[in-house]
Design goal:
- By secondary structure, the protein is mainly beta.
- The chain has a single domain, classed as Beta Barrel (Lipocalin).
- The protein is built from 1 helix and 12 strands; from the N terminus they run αββββββββββββ.
- β1 and β2 form a beta hairpin.
- The termini are far apart.
């Protein structure tokens, strides 16, 4: 024991790795140009639209996947951007769009496997809102969960919301990505 060590003090925690791993390889696999069939569910009613202008690309030396999403939604141009990475044992993401001025942040749960591989070769990733956020349409506070089922040529992204004043999780959006390039 060195003279500088304090008895009973825990050793400093090992810093999270900066190495790229299997999770980064999965994000890279989903890069390219995609057509996306969108379904929005509100009060039991569904509205559908399609975008053939979704680009997913690796940035910052392959550490992060950036998604740029453009379409017409409810008669207005829509533009959303997402950054997804893997750090300290879980996926992390941010999302911004033209529907509001908020920055959504998401993180995988530490007590769950960050990536679940299915027998058919697909992989499942789930992230949760880091904190409750105000819904753009209703102003009510909600928590969200996003579940992605990914393969090389298809991604299914389902978004679930739990309004804090109701406590019931409901499917609010489904995006089915089909690879173009």
């Amino acid at each position: 024991m060195s003279a500088d060590a304090v008895v009973g003090e825990a050793a400093p925690a090992k810093p999270p790795t900066t190495e790229l791993g299997e999770e980064h390889n999965l994000l890279k696999l989903t890069c390219g140009k995609w057509k996306v069939d969108c379904t929005f569910i509100m009060d039991g009613e569904e509205s559908k639209c399609t975008s053939d202008n979704v680009i997913r690309e690796m940035v910052i030396g392959g550490r992060f996947m950036r998604e740029t999403f453009k379409m017409d939604f409810m008669g207005e141009p829509y533009h959303g951007e997402q950054i997804v990475g893997f750090y300290d044992g879980c996926f992390q993401a941010t999302y911004i769009d033209t529907m509001g001025n908020g920055i959504y942040t998401y993180k995988g749960a530490k007590d769950e496997a960050p990536l679940v591989k299915l027998p058919d070769g697909k992989a499942v990733m789930t992230v949760y809102s880091a904190e409750p956020v105000k819904d753009y349409m209703t102003g009510r506070l909600k928590k969200t969960r996003q579940r992605y089922v990914m393969s090389e040529n298809e991604i299914i992204n389902e978004n679930y919301e739990t309004l804090l004043d109701e406590g019931i999780e409901k499917l609010s959006m489904r995006f089915i990505y089909h690879r173009i390039e």
